[in-house]
Design goal:
Layout: H1 25-35, E1 45-54, E2 57-59, H2 65-75, E3 79-89, E4 94-105, H3 110-120, H4 134-139, E5 140-144, H5 147-151, H6 155-163
Antiparallel strand pairs: 1-2, 1-3, 3-4, 4-5
Helix pairs in contact: 2-3
Length: 166
């Protein structure tokens, strides 16, 4: 977006209350990340979190190879939702929003899943995949919504929110 920025890494546990509705989890986590940092009066903080949901079940980051294979096997041949929550925060103001995209995977073979997990090691990705990687090239049949939302930051919506920031 041609906006200068710097990345600040703060370790935040990505946990949430069990009773929170699935669609609210990403905003809750984005706000939790925003609250872990204290911006000065000249800083605008942007935090985000993305979840993958299949039939209202959250597929988090896989624990290991077997978990990644299990998740991709569950996503194979199905449509799932990717929800990203974003929190924009200054000392004086906060705005939180979320975007939803729907992704349809082709039926993936066990060999395709094994190859992807072995080569790309998607252990840091919700749902065990990155759409911008090989699995996205060969497996994604259809997207409804923002591609960048699926990558983890709905850039167009963020731009619109920043443009209207007062």
């Amino acid at each position: 977006m041609n906006i200068p920025f710097s990345v600040q890494v703060i370790d935040v546990e990505e946990s949430y209350p069990a009773e929170i509705p699935v669609e609210e989890i990403p905003c809750y986590l984005a706000e939790k990340k925003a609250d872990a940092y204290s911006p000065d009066e000249n800083t605008m903080l942007i935090t985000a979190d993305t979840i993958v949901c299949l039939n209202s079940k959250v597929l988090e980051k896989p624990r290991d190879k077997a978990d990644a294979v299990r998740m991709l096997s569950e996503l194979s041949g199905k449509t799932h939702e990717v929800i990203t929550g974003v929190c924009i925060r200054t000392r004086a103001k906060r705005k939180t929003f979320s975007e939803v995209a729907r992704v349809r995977f082709a039926v993936l073979t066990a060999e395709e899943i094994e190859f992807y997990v072995e080569k790309y090691r998607p252990y840091d990705k919700a749902g065990a995949y990155g759409i911008q990687e090989w699995i996205g090239y060969i497996g994604v049949e259809h997207i409804e919504g923002s591609f960048y939302n699926i990558m983890g930051l709905p850039i167009q919506r963020l731009y619109a929110e920043l443009k209207n920031w007062e």
